[in-house]
Write a structure and sequence with these properties.
The chain has 313 residues and is of the alpha/beta class. It folds into two domains: 4-114 and 291-304, Rossmann fold, CATH 3.40.50.720; 116-287, 2-Layer Sandwich (Dihydrodipicolinate Reductase, domain 2), CATH 3.30.360. The chain is 30% helix and 20% strand. The protein contains nine helices and 13 strands. The protein has helices at 13-22, 41-50, 60-69, 101-106, 116-130, 152-160, 183-190, 226-236, 289-304; strands at residues 4-8, 29-31, 53-56, 76-79, 91-92, 110-112, 141-147, 172-173, 197-203, 209-216, 243-245, 268-274, 278-285. Strands 8-9-7-10-13-12-11 form a seven-stranded mixed β-sheet. Strands 2-1-3-4-6-5 form a six-stranded parallel β-sheet, with helices on both faces. Helix 1 (13-22) packs across helix 9 and helix 5 (116-130) packs parallel to helix 7 (183-190). The relative contact order is 0.15. Bound molecules: NADPH dihydro-nicotinamide-adenine-dinucleotide phosphate and N-acetyl-L-glutamyl 5-phosphate (X2W). Its main location: cytoplasm. InterPro entries: AGPR (IPR050085), AGPR_dimerisation_dom (IPR058924), AGPR_type-2 (IPR010136), NAD(P)-bd_dom_sf (IPR036291), Semialdehyde_DH_NAD-bd (IPR000534). It comes from Dysosmobacter welbionis.
Length: 313
Amino acid sequence: MKPKVYIDGKDGTTGLQIYDRLAARDDIGLLLIDEAKRKDPGERKRLMAEADIVFLCLPDAAAVEAVALAEGSGARMIDASTAHRTAPGWVYGFPELRPGQREAIAGARYVANPGCHATGFISIVAPLVQAGLLSADADLCCFSLTGYSGGGKKMIAQYEAAEKAESLYSPGLYGLTQAHKHLPEMQKLCGLKKPPVFTPIVDDYYKGMAATVPLHRSQLTGEATLHQVWQALADHYAGEKLVHVAPEGSADAGSKLYGNARAGDNGLTLVAAGNDERFTITALFDNLGKGASGAAVQNMNIMLGFEETAGLL
Ligand SMILES: NC(=O)C1=CN([C@@H]2O[C@H](COP(=O)(O)OP(=O)(O)OC[C@H]3O[C@@H](n4cnc5c(N)ncnc54)[C@H](OP(=O)(O)O)[C@@H]3O)[C@@H](O)[C@H]2O)C=CC1
Ligand SMILES: CC(=O)N[C@@H](CCC(=O)OP(=O)(O)O)C(=O)O
C-alpha cells in the first residue's frame, strides 16, 4: 500500500510548492480536499485521520489548531510554520544538522520544518560550533536576503500589484527590534548562548536567498583561518546530496553572489570568502526549496524510508 499524504494549506505558497514536487510521484497517494471545504475543520480532520503524513502549510495559529485536529489519529506531521520549531516533542527537520538528526527525523511523529532564514544561519554556524571553531557564547551577526515569496500570498500580492509602492522597488530591512520569529531556532539548534544580531532583507524578486554570517578571525577559537573554516564546513557536509560547499577560493575579487543563485532548486551552497582577517560565509538557496517545500519533501522522504532526494534533484 502506498503511503497517503495530505497537504493542509495546499493552496498557499508553500503548500503549492509541496504539491508540485509530489503530484507526479507514483510512490505515494495524495489525498486532496474538496476546494469548497479546504478550511472546514471536520473535513480536514477526516483527511488527516486517513493520512500517513500530513504537511501543515498554514499560519502559526492554524498549525497549532491542526495538530489538535489530528489528535488521536496515527498521522505523522511535518509543520512548515514557526509554531513548533523549538517545542518539546518535535524533531527539527534539518537532516544535515548533526550525526543522528536524520535518524531522529526518520523515527519522529512530529517534524518541524526549519524557517528559511534560519536554514541559512544554522547551515553555517552549527557545524562551526560543533567543530569547536566558534564558542557557544560567540557574538554573531547575520544578514539574510530573501525574495518576496518568503512572505506568502499577502506579500506576493503587494509586490505584484499593478501600482505598487515605490519603496517596494528597493531592498527592505526588517526585524529591526531583534525579535524576528526565527531567532529562537537559530540560537537553539546552533547551541548558542545568545541569538545573533539578525538583519533580514526582502527585495523585489520572487524567490531565492543569500544568508551571510560575517566573521572576524579574532572571533574564532584559536584565531582559526579561512581555510580552517572552509575545511570544517567541507568535512561536515561531505557526502551530502543537497548541501554543498563551494570549492575553496571560488569567490575572488571579481565575484558577486546573487540572492537568486539557487532559485528553483532544492539544494543549498555555502560560499566561504574573505582575506586573512575577515570572512563571510554565505548560504545560497531557495526560500521555497531547501528553505521550505523542498526541505519538507526531503523530511517526508526520510520519514517514509524513501531515497532522501526522491523528486528533489
Ligand atoms: N513562503 C515561504 O517562503 C515560507 C513559508 N513558511 C511558512 O509556511 C507556512 C505557510 O506559509 P505560506 O505558504 O508562505 O503562506 P500563504 O499565506 O501563502 O498560505 C497559507 C495558506 O493557508 C491557508 N489557511 C489559512 N488558515 C487556514 C485554516 N484555518 N485552514 C486551512 N487553511 C488555512 C490560506 O488560505 P487562503 O488561501 O484562503 O489565504 C493559504 O492558502 C507559514 O507558517 C509560513 O511562515 C516557511 C518557510 C518559507
Ligand atoms: C519575506 C518575509 O517576510 N519572510 C518571512 C519568513 C518566511 C519564513 O520562512 O518564515 P517561517 O519559515 O518561519 O514561516 C519573515 O521573515 O517573516
